[in-house]
User: Fold this.
Amino acid sequence: MYLADYIKQRLSLEEYSFSTDELQAVTHKEKEALTTDLSYLTKKGDIVPLRRGFYLIIPPRYSKQGKLPIQLYSENLFKSLDRTYYIGLYSVAKLHGASHQQIQRDYIITTKPTLLDISKGAIDLRFFTTATWPEKNILVKKADAGTFKISDPILTAVDLIHYQNKLGGLNRMLPVIEELIEEMNSSDLEELLTWYSNKSTLQRLGYLLEELQAESSLVEILYEYFKSVKYYPVLLSPKSKQKAGSVDNRWKVDVNIKLESDI
Assistant:
């Protein structure tokens, strides 16, 4: 089978990516010959080498953008890496209806060790790693190319708060969190509290839920959790050379920044 025929076959099955191992198993070509074919189609823009041994297929309807929606290949990418993952942060906030941030970058949460970010042409992937993998709060969604995994609204908000200093600061994400709150429900928050261990992030979440006038049941579920654990003052916006001072709210959050939507 020729490489061009293989790609047509993949597209007919709504598959938008492949590995060189998969390709070699079908074409039975030597690696040198495959390298020449892959190089030719890469120059034409029909495929993009995303990582060593992993390629994206760019069909005509996406050729102008020069990239694919992340949900069309995330499952295959992480299957090839033999890792768990979920699409998160601003990428999934958009899928949950929080559209204030018009981002071109895609964000993925995965396990350690750290993956290098990918920036190739229009493709911009940023990876975050977590030591505590979620037992819950990950949703499986369907796309043309099969399934893909995303964080639910409550985990998305928590991740945004946790990584705020790497994502432009809390005020940049405030309108996104405000829209995510509308999609949150009590059962998802209760599930999160069974496994999520970063109390300082949960304190900041509680403060923001109250400030943004979230549904009272969400606020009270979170506060009931804090009645059962020890917790200490934290900064709303973490600063490396600043410690939390006096606090005047039940979340023990030192409000060290003025909250205002950065839009």
